[in-house]
Amino acid sequence: MAGFNSFLEARVMPVAGRIAEQKHLQAIRDGIILTMPLLIIGSLFLIIGFIPIPGYNEFMVGLFGDLWRTKLLYPVNATFDIMALIVSFGVAYRLAEKYKVDPLSAGAISVAAFLLATPYKTMFTPEGATAAQEVGGVIPVALMGSQGLFVAMLLAVLSTEIYRKIIQKKIVLSMPDGVPPAVSRSFVALIPASAVLLVVWLLRILIENTSFESIHNIVKDLLVGPLSALGSSLIGAIVCVLLVHLLWALGLHGAAIVGGIMSPIWLTLMDQNRAAFQADPNGDLPNIITTQFFDLWVYAGGSGATLALVVLMLFRARSEQMKNISRLSIGPGLFNINEPVTFGMPIVMNPILIIPFILAPVVLVIVSYVAMSLGWVAKPSGVAVPWTTPVIISGYLASGGKISGSVLQLVNFVIALVIYYPFFRLWDKQKVSEEQANAASNQAVNL
Fold first, then answer.
1. Could you tell me which of 327, 350, 334, 332 has the C-alpha nearest to residue 420?
2. Are residues 193 and 163 in contact, defined by beta-carbon separation less than 8 angstroms?
3. HEC assignment per residue over 167-183
4. pLDDT band at residue 6, thresholds of 50, 70 and 90?
């Protein structure tokens, strides 16, 4: 085990540290987080629209009419269907912050570049209509949501890189001292914005003359398709969980590092389930692996499924150290926050507790995936339940109001208890011995 720890410290930790500090991945992660409040709000309306109570629909029809659900779901469409637009602005904003250039200008330019790269749908009025009655084109809603997520991120990075290099080389229009600062900043962005839009425009013209026809098609065929196939598979989920917990074992925020890469994929899969659930709440959903699959069924108590460990400490610990840590950890643990136990016990760099910390989530991924694929448990419905929601409640909400979601959480909790128990007993016994030795030493000193 010592040799394994040495290997992790010497080989894995430096690479993981560089990935964790990578500006673009951090900006993508933080830009995606910007969408979370909107998705949660939209999910609340989605839950209200499909409460699984017999007679609920008829009751609501009697109160609000036949179109009650359609009108109720307006906020769902208004939040989920602009996901890519928000990410386009958010990623550029966060990346510009890291380069210490104007983030508002970078965000606005990124959104303009994203819209420029997106082919509008042309709509025509019936034959015989006048030119004034024709609609030249509309923004495709599908590409403003999860389907356009990867293009939005890529263009946000590209546009911000062009913007900041021009700014840093001071190729800008400088205004006289008497001009208001807000006006001056807008003119500073004029040349960089022109360069960004020129590049994206030429790129779009070039791609339109190929078989792909648009940047969105290139990204979908060459990037999103293969990554989604990997991210939605059982093998891919196991690999991701292993990476997350190996990084945590080194003291690095594994969920943030791996999530920065995989979150766009899991968000896209989540939104596919949301759209399918919204169309037919009782129909089969396309994906098992989504953001909620990990947050709510695998990471009960936080990464490592440590709620089980905290409960073991609370009721079975003999050492005073473990008892004190359990009292500090149980409150946050119920809301899936586990830093007190991860760093306080500690689990990080702990050769005994690293084993169940990695093993438990891998087993829970397999159990949850098999249960959902066999139809024993409802798949995640696409409702963006906050990751801090306690177990049982979160399982019920995230599965679209199915009790099977809560039952699986309880089963997973018991499995994690069984996996952690022998390692917990070993660590607790070691701490009891240390405390007894310290007490004996202190007593001898006092004598």
1. 350
2. yes
3. HHCCCCCCCCCCCCHHH
4. low
Structure confidence by residue, pLDDT tens digits, 46-78: 888 887 777 878 888 888 888 888 888 888 888
What lies within 8 Å, CB to CB, of 10 at 6+ separation is none
pLDDT in tens, 385-406: 888 889 999 999 999 889 999 9
Integer CA distances (angstroms), 392 to 330, 344, 419, in order: 16, 26, 20
Closest CA to 400 of 272, 265, 264, 285: 285
Task: Give the burial string for 418-441 (b: 16+ CB within 10 Å, else e).
Answer: ebbeebbeebbeebbeeeeeeeee
pLDDT > 70: what percent of the chain? 88
Q: What's this model's pTM, rounded to 2 decimal places?
A: 0.78
Element spanning 44, H or E: helix 36-49
Here the tokens at position 405 are: 């979601």
Residues 6+ apart with CB under 8 A from 200: 113, 116, 117, 155, 158, 159
Whether the bond between 346 and the residue before it is cis, its omega within 30 degrees of 0, is: yes
DSSP string over 10-39 = IIIHHHHHHHHT-HHHHHHHHHHHTTHHHH
* 159-188 pLDDT per residue, tens: 999 999 999 888 877 766 666 766 666 778
CA–CA–CA angle 6, 10, 16 (5° rounding): 120
Question: 355: exposed, middle or buried (C-beta count within 10 Å: 0-12, 13-18, 19+)?
Answer: middle
- pLDDT value for 363: 96
Identify the three-state secondary structure at position 321: helix
Count of H-run helices and E-run strands, the chain: 24, 2
Q: Which amino acid is at 24?
A: H
Best CA proximity match to 354, nearest among 393, 306, 292: 306
CB 391 within 8 A of CB 302: no
Q: Which amino acid is at 241?
A: V
Query: In this prediction, what percent of the chain has a pLDDT beyond 90?
Result: 36
Q: Are 278 and 294 in contact, with CB atoms under 8 Å apart?
A: no
Q: How far apart are CA 423 and CA 142, in angstroms?
A: 49
